């Protein structure tokens, strides 16, 4: 497995990411995730849609909560064939509880806890913590990455305007 030492930091401490470094123009890799209702889901389930794949360490942390609530608010402005998927290693039960408590209804939360396939295929699995790094991948309707943002310091938020602009272009 490809290791990328010092790819991100947590409170300034370097961490190693497992998996490839994806770039704009790459085909979006497949993944096998679990919905809040314990149903399997893959990239193919969203074929033909524009997607923002948002990876976060844990919904139960302040920055992840702020980010997910922000994307939920922005998601209300998007067309029906655009999806924002927030992916973490949190258990599906915890994601469902958190979404209910926070009123999250536009973002789809998915769990990578079983196989870590998203983390490994998208190069965002933190070796030391078995959590996902903070990143956003925008996928166009053809399955091509049109925006990639790996947030260097995990405690920082992504650049929302850039993500939303890329998502609007991907939706075409």
What does this structure look like?
This protein is an alpha+beta fold and 172 residues long. It has one domain: Glutaredoxin (3-Layer(aba) Sandwich), CATH 3.40.30.10. The protein has 4 helices and 11 strands. The protein has a 5-stranded mixed beta sheet with strand order 7-6-5-10-11. Strand 8 and strand 9 form a beta hairpin. The N and C termini lie far apart (36 Å). The mean pLDDT is 97.
Question: What descriptive keywords fit this protein?
Answer:
single chain; 172 residues; alpha+beta; Glutaredoxin; five-stranded mixed β-sheet; four-stranded antiparallel β-sheet; 11 strands; 24% helix
Q: Quick recap of the structure?
A:
The protein is of the alpha+beta class and 172 residues long. It is built from 4 helices and 11 strands.
Q: What is the number of independent domains?
A: 1
Q: Summarize model confidence as the mean pLDDT.
A: 97
Bulk shape: globular
Helix content: 10-25%
Helical segment tally?
Answer: 4
Could you say what the CATH topology is called?
Glutaredoxin
The percent range for strand residues is 25-35%
Poorly predicted residue ranges: none
């Amino acid at each position: 497995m490809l290791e990328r030492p010092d790819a991100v930091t947590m409170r300034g401490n370097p961490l190693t990411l497992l998996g490839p470094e994806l770039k704009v123009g790459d085909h979006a890799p497949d993944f096998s995730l679990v919905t809040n209702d314990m149903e399997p889901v893959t990239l193919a389930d969203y074929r033909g849609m524009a997607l923002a794949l948002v990876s976060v360490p844990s919904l139960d942390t302040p920055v992840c909560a702020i980010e997910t609530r922000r994307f939920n608010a922005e998601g209300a402005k998007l067309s029906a064939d655009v999806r924002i998927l927030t992916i973490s290693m949190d258990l599906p039960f915890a994601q469902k509880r958190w979404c209910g408590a926070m009123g999250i209804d536009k973002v789809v939360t998915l769990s990578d806890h079983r196989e870590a396939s998203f983390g490994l295929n998208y190069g965002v699995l933190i070796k030391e913590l078995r959590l996902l790094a903070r990143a956003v991948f925008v996928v166009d309707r053809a399955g091509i990455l049109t925006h990639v943002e790996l947030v260097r310091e995990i405690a920082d938020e992504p650049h929302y305007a850039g993500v939303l602009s890329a998502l609007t272009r991907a939706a075409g």
